[in-house]
Input
Amino acid sequence: MAPVIDITEARTHVLDRCPPLAPRDLPFRQAIGTVLAAPVHALEDVPPFANSAVDGYAVVASSIASPPTELPVVGEVAAGASTDRVLQPGEAIRIMTGAPVPSGADAVVMVEDTERLEGGDRVRIHRSIEPGVAVRAAGDDVRVGTELYGPGTLVTPAVAAVLASVNAAVVSVVPKVRVAVLSTGDELVDDGRPLAPGQIRESNRTMLVGLVRDAGCEAVDYGIVRDDEAALEAVLRSAAAECDAIVTSGGVSMGDYDVVKAVLSQIADMRWMQIAIKPAKPFAFGLLSSANGRQVPVFGLPGNPVSSLVSFELLARPALRQMAGVLHPQRPTVQAVAVDGLPRRPDGKIHYMRVFAEFGDDGRVQVRSIGAQGSHQLAATSMANAIAEVPDGDGVEPGGPVRTLLLWVA
Output
């Protein structure tokens, strides 16, 4: 029997063997959801010219030192247009938000501080103004040559918008990780037909496909593979050729004879682990050589659905995020308050208890147990939005602190 190891050793073993994928160049619009593999520098100033921050009138500030002041309106400029008129002291040009500030002007009076006269040929200005007011200088947001983003930056929609604004048409990114997800077992049914004796509804694969997508990866559903070693080997080799990682569930407990363990032991370099945690004590990880020579990570998760979820969150998800180029791939953790306590008994393991987390009136995260903590009780776990890490011992007293992994917070 393999020795029991702690979660840190297991996580280190996995992460050390899951480096980021090779970068590739993508158009910035296609890069949303990926992580930058190289720095991005601004190719242009933003804004590219001095423009108005408001609708109003471009003026020479010294012309309205003693308001109210009436000025002739000698032109108009809208966003997307421009004027060749050089503004002189004692004149005004009507201007719209985003329009280029005319030469000679050094400020813009907002329309709320003005009054149109003579059908717009003149304007009365009711407030004095300082030079530079409501003028966005060229390069006010971004200067050409500035490093905007470094490697490891997630390309969010806002980041993509900045890339568009500086004409960074193509960027180097770590591509999304393609992850094969499969279930094995003659007992699994997923087509809605009535269950025969010994059959169960497939659920783990459904959950894992969603978890893989939630991790920012592309999930490739390989369906259910029956208990046939040749068929399973063919599917695994196909998945290794087409995907960057493989996730399976079941058949990883010590002493089990299962087609997953039998096949992976033969074709991949696997480590079958027993980890000092509850749930998800059994876990397998290895590398499967693909036909093109790549080493494809294989995550063998426990078959119990809650154990499968917890081991994915603790071990598979950080590894997949690291493969995607994320610099800090693990979920955020906080020191939360266990409102009602989280009791347990000593057994030499860390207990990862499913909890519901929310912000209290004092701004601190508060957690409460979702109730049933059995490794087979997925219905209760499905309502958890966090996982509390309860060290070996008698648990956490009511109101006590507990380190908590946040899945999402209400």
About this structure: Residues 165 and 184 are 49 Å apart (CA to CA). The first helix runs from residue 7 to 15. Helices lie at 7-15, 157-165, 204-214, 229-242, 259-267, 305-323, 378-381. The mean pLDDT is 94.
